[in-house]
Specification:
heterotrimer; B: two-stranded antiparallel ribbon; 2 strands; 77% helix; 3% strand; globular; C: alpha/beta; Rossmann fold; four-stranded antiparallel sheet; 9 helices
Chain lengths: 319, 307, 247
């Protein structure tokens, strides 16, 4: 087996085994940390599909996290305090369906426009659309506006209870594994070959007869829907949501996770989120000015580490 | 409809538009010539506001503080170019974005370290702090008129720079074509640093001008940068004319939308529905406008010539 | 009309410059038709209008009896027109085989297929390998495209054009930048394709053109000044005057 495969298996096993061990040894805090890590990793994996494999530098991906989280928060709010009955529910299936559906729809509507543009226009316009959703939620006083919304009750699912930290973690972990396998399957499929081909040379693919716009749009929608699901999990984890979760700097952090770990690789986004979350945790416990070394580190990585952590693991000879 | 309010809000819209233009012009200048995406442009705007705020307290005069702050923020821009931006020119836009994203964290935290987490109110000299009656019943703050005046003066200056100077010639030629620039016998490295410093001064000036109204705060950079992006996307990235037109349009739409959209909505929906939907729509208005414009012109209103 | 491709009164100008000036041309099935002309004659502009990368100002393009004048590039590719670029246009960060397999895949209809790994689909792989074999690149199949030489890239372009199953191959200077040996190899590859595919060839290498072409069209300042068999063109005074005489 290749070295990257070994590392992937090792990291995923560690993520499966460590949190229960933490819990049994009385370090519940680390289970929380791991849950956040795994949920953000799902978002990073979804972003990697379009950023890494599709070459679409989306700077508005946190919007889907927000949409997903509010897709849990708003139905719970209505069910608890009354309001629009059609949207009122504690049911997890309904929440997930709403999160994925609305995210896919938002990705479709904005993707139709964003994907007509290229390069730096695409970066800026995805950022602007992300910010549009951010301001939309800020303007909605009913759901707390700027101050955010407390989710009183977590999504109700059959067999498991999300109130149990370990069960919530297990759900998130399984979702991450499924997300990784999904992206892996997609990029290796014929669809994925077209997507990657268009990343490398769009004109060539068009000349071959591919309507690359439709392939990109499809990937864009899949990615948005997947990230919306991560958002629904995050809402259930934090039980508090605010527009801050989807500001543009959150999108920037997601991008950084992908690049840090290594874009267009299976494990890269997971590794990137892990290092990101751990760094954040360690640095912020040392100083309130932790963004300073963090920003310097980010710049250093962009300048000096090509191919991210997976690039380092792969080494030179291994293909 | 209240025409006095309409007039005042239009004036406010123009003022916001001109401030947006100051920020966007620097952004579009740097992109047009250097092909560099500077996410940290908003942070330079914010740093400008803080420097000016401190100098206002030291010198006791806002205008003197602005005059001293301008070369300082230009120097900050120059240093950023030398230390960070320069090494990123040869990379792709994704690297620009991530690198300057890191720079934002560094700049924002440095300001936090130096000035503390709270905002900084900036006092105006008495003669600027008052109001003038433009005509019967229409009273506007003197300082807002000053902002409009300065904004127009800078726009005129940039117009002259772009159309009648050697530097402007390079801008119009879309001088990311480096071979051409060197063929003209210009030291590119200095040119790029100067352009970057000029962009920083423009953004810094905008930050200084807004700070007496809103106070200098760390979050102000992140708030303006996205709107500035919308402006240059709508105007056409790299186009100075586009930045000006789009900035004024966006400034007006945003300001007027926030104050009159509910009245407009009441014309065709129940007052209650209008009250609830108007804030949401006005918050998204400039993005919707951007989407509509891009749907028809993916390169913006004034796309720069093909390079 | 039995021509595979019929171009009538095609015009295209950029600003004040007329790049294609009332061009009419019929390309018969199976022929190798060469377009020659001095630099700036508008050869690449013509090809771009045929492939759909540029849209003409006026005139019409009929391919297999269908008016394709206003069809987008990908739709023309589906009808059976493929183009190779003057500047090598390949997906550099994919393997040689993947590049060709993408062309085979394109022929088989849409690729909205998400489950099976593309590289494990045997027919796809085998056909791509066969095309690589025909241009002599089978041994390099698994190498990253970026690692190949310029000459090999040109050969890949031919393999891709073949794999896409196109009836009409638009080849824009396939010999450009090739050394003498590579040129000879390329001529042999194209010779082997004659009769099997219809080829519209733009080429500066006159030895290659006269060795390969069934018919030749001479383009000067966007206008056709002569069309005919190689011998006729060689003897045509206008052509000698306007073009060959300059060399």
């Amino acid at each position: 087996m290749k070295r990257t495969t070994w590392v992937t298996v090792f990291v995923m096993l560690a993520l499966a085994i460590l949190p229960p061990v933490f819990l049994w040894t009385g370090n519940a805090f680390y289970v929380d940390l791991a849950t956040r890590l795994v949920i953000l990793a799902i978002a990073a994996v979804s972003l990697n599909l379009i950023l890494g494999f599709g070459g679409m530098v989306s700077f508005g991906h946190a919007a889907y996290i927000g949409i997903g989280a509010y897709a849990v928060g708003i139905p719970v709010y209505y069910e608890t305090y009354g309001g629009i009955d059609a949207l009122a529910s504690y049911g997890g299936a309904f929440h997930i369906l709403l999160a994925v559906g609305v995210s896919a729809l938002f990705a479709l509507l904005t993707g139709v426009i964003c994907l007509r543009t290229k390069g730096v226009y695409f970066i800026m316009i995805t950022m602007a659309f992300g910010q549009m959703i951010y301001y939309l939620f800020i303007s909605m006083e009913e759901f707390g506006g700027d101050d955010g919304l407390v989710i009183d009750i977590r999504s109700e699912l059959p067999l498991v209870s999300l109130d149990n930290p370990l069960q919530l973690y297990a759900i998130a972990y399984i979702a991450l594994v499924i997300a990784m396998l999904m992206v892996r399957t997609i990029v290796n499929s014929r669809f994925g070959m077209v997507l990657q081909g268009a990343r490398g040379n769009d004109e060539r693919l068009v000349t071959l007869g591919y309507n690359t716009y439709l392939y990109r749009l499809t990937a864009y929608v899949i990615s948005g829907a997947m990230c919306g699901f991560a958002g629904a999990l995050l809402g259930n984890f934090t039980t508090f949501i605010s527009p801050d979760m989807m500001g543009w700097s959150r999108s920037g952090e997601l991008m950084f996770m992908v690049i840090l770990g290594g874009s267009a690789t299976t494990l890269g986004p997971v590794l990137g989120s892990a290092v990101f979350i751990l760094m954040e945790e360690v640095l912020s416990s040392i100083t309130i000015y932790w963004h300073l070394p963090f920003g310097l580190m980010l710049m250093g990585i962009v300048l000096f580490v090509r191919g991210g952590l997976m690039g380092l693991i792969k080494g030179k000879g291994d293909k | 409809m209240d025409y006095t309010l309409l007039f005042i809000q239009t004036l406010n819209g123009v003022q916001l538009g001109l401030l947006l233009f100051l920020v966007a012009s620097g952004l579009t200048l740097v992109f047009g010539i250097l092909d560099f995406v500077n996410l940290a442009h908003g942070s330079i705007y914010m740093v400008g506001a803080f420097i000016c705020a401190s100098l206002t307290f030291i010198t006791g005069n806002f205008l003197i503080a602005v005059l001293i702050s301008l070369p300082i923020i230009g120097l900050v821009g120059y240093l950023i170019e030398r230390l960070v931006a320069r090494t990123l020119y040869s990379r792709n836009h994704l690297d620009h974005v991530l690198g300057t994203f890191g720079l934002i964290l560094v700049l924002d935290t440095s300001v936090h370290l130096i000035w503390g987490p709270a905002g900084f109110a900036v006092p105006l000299p008495e003669w600027l702090d008052g109001r003038v009656e433009l005509f019967e019943g229409v009273v506007v703050p003197t300082f807002r008129l000053l902002i409009i005046g300065v904004g127009l003066a800078v726009a005129a200056g940039l117009y002259w720079l772009v159309n009648f100077t050697k530097l402007g010639m390079l801008i119009r030629a879309g001088a990311s074509n480096r071979t051409m620039v060197s063929a003209l016998g210009i030291d590119i490295s200095t040119l790029f640093a100067l352009v970057f410093a000029l962009g920083a001064m423009l953004a810094g000036l905008a930050g200084m001008l807004i700070s007496p109204i809103t106070e200098a705060s760390i979050s102000m950079g992140g708030e303006i940068i996205i709107t500035a992006f919308v402006v240059i996307i709508v105007g056409g990235i790299g186009s100075m004319k586009g930045a000006f037109v789009a900035a004024i349009v966006i400034g007006l739409i945003d300001t007027l939308g926030r104050s009159f959209l509910d009245d407009l909505f009441k014309l065709f929906m129940s007052p209650q529905a209008a009250e609830t939907s108007a804030p949401a729509v006005s918050a998204m208005l400039i993005y919707i406008i951007m989407a509509v414009i891009l749907a028809f012109r993916p390169q913006g209103l004034f796309p720069p010539r093909v390079r | 009309m039995s021509a595979l491709l019929n171009i009538s009164n095609l015009c295209k100008s950029f600003g004040g410059v007329t790049a294609t000036d009332n061009v009419s041309l019929a390309v018969e099935p199976g022929e190798l038709h060469a377009i020659i002309g001095p630099n700036g004659a508008g050869k690449t502009t013509l090809i771009s209008q045929l492939s759909g990368a540029l849209s003409p100002d006026s005139g019409s393009i009929i391919f297999k009896g269908t008016d394709i004048t206003n069809r987008p590039a990908h739709a023309r590719a589906r009808l059976g027109i493929t183009r190779s670029f003057q500047i090598t246009s390949l997906v550099m960060d994919m393997s040689v085989l993947d590049n060709v397999a993408l062309a085979v895949q394109a022929r088989q209809g849409h690729s909205f297929r998400f489950l099976r790994p593309a590289r494990s689909i045997r027919p796809l792989r085998d056909e791509a390998l066969e095309m690589l074999d025909r241009v002599g690149l089978k041994a390099r199949a698994d190498d990253p495209t970026a690692a190949l030489s310029h000459g090999e890239h040109r050969q890949m372009e031919i393999a891709i054009a073949l794999a896409s199953g196109a009836d009409l191959m638009l080849l824009d200077e396939p010999m450009a930048g090739l050394g003498p040996q590579e040129s000879t190899a390329m001529i042999e590859i194209l010779k082997a394709l004659k009769g099997e595919r219809t080829i519209l060839l733009i080429e500066h290498d006159m030895d290659a053109v006269f060795a390969l072409a069934d018919r030749i069209t001479v383009l000067v300042y966007g206008r056709i000044i002569a069309t005919g068999a190689p011998d006729e063109i060689r003897g045509n005074n206008d052509v000698r005057h306007a073009y060959l005489g300059e060399e």
